[in-house]
TrEMBL record:
Domain called Secretion system C-terminal sorting: residue spans: 208-273
Signal peptide (from-to): 1-20
Keywords in alphabetical order: Signal
Name the UniProt record assigns to this protein: Por secretion system C-terminal sorting domain-containing protein
TM regions (residue ranges): none
Pfam hit, one: Por_Secre_tail
Species in which this protein is naturally found: Chryseobacterium oranimense
Length: 273
């Protein structure tokens, strides 16, 4: 009995860890000029929308690790394109954003100018949230080396840290023309991995049809096991017992939206319309 309880606790811990691995990227091991970075096994692409953003490593001591000056970060150097905008995006994992730090200034690095910062989270190209911060920016180097904390747990009075996305977009406004981005703290959903065609990826073949569905659908698998259906914020909604071959399932009771089907061999999206 005790052994069963112990094993159950271990299983729960493993499940929680797989759905909530928090990591902070300080960019210190990344290459100057790179348009991508890797943290906790996940590759993020730095996508420049307006201006050119990449890893900056030429000015030691001008970054901010969250507690002290550091040497590398993302920025747009002295690119005059306006309004500056970039994304960090991954196609191999979904993630949540906890917080990050930004140096926001004029092109001459003067912090004492007014501007705005718009933060947008997207999933598969669909906007999940967007907020514009207009106040509370650092106006001098002070104790944070000129960086402002962007706390996603309390952005304009709302908590956006529990929303699953695959792209974080940053856009400057007003007189902000330069952006430094550092100490990116995020949560990895390590078991949610999507193929580019949004179908299953697994070592053993699994297929779902129809997808999108109005409710009923079929899961075809090569092995017995259990499947779980999660909401995009990681809540377990339903468990399914699978047998080799065709398995009939139904999500008619769930609202229209995108759900994650997890099996022992991989994960897939289910789109209910």
């Amino acid at each position: 009995m005790k052994r069963s309880i112990f094993l159950t606790i271990c299983s729960l811990l493993i499940s929680l860890l797989s759905f909530g691995q928090t990591s902070t990227e300080q960019f210190e091991t990344e290459s100057h000029g790179s348009s991508s970075f890797t943290d906790n096994g996940v590759i993020f692409n730095i996508i420049s929308h307006v201006g050119t953003f990449d890893i900056q490593g030429n000015y030691p001591g001008t970054g901010w690790s969250g507690t002290a000056n550091d040497n590398r970060y993302i920025d747009n150097s002295n690119d005059a394109a306006s309004p500056p905008s970039f994304s960090i995006k991954t196609t191999s994992n979904l993630f949540k954003v906890n917080r990050f730090w930004m140096y926001l200034s004029a092109l001459n690095l003067d912090l004492n100018v007014s501007g705005t910062l718009t933060i947008t989270g997207k999933l598969s190209g669909v906007t999940k949230f967007t907020q514009t911060k207009t106040t509370g920016f650092a106006t001098s180097l002070g104790s944070t080396n000129g960086y402002t904390l962007i706390d996603m747990t309390n952005l304009n009075g709302q908590n956006y840290s529990n929303i699953v996305i695959d792209e974080l977009r940053i856009t400057l406004g007003g007189n902000f023309r330069y952006a430094g981005f550092d100490a990116f703290t995020w949560v990895k959903d390590s078991n949610i991995v999507l193929a580019t065609n949004e179908t299953a990826i697994s070592k053993k073949e699994i297929s779902i049809y129809p997808n999108p569905t109005s409710g009923p659908f079929t899961i075809n698998t090569e092995e017995n096991g259990q499947a779980e259906i999660y909401s995009q914020d990681g809540k377990l909604l339903k468990r399914l017992e699978l047998k080799k071959g065709n398995n009939h399932a139904d999500v008619s009771e769930l609202p229209n939206g995108v759900y994650i089907l997890k099996t022992p061999s991989g994960s897939s999206k289910i789109i209910k319309k």
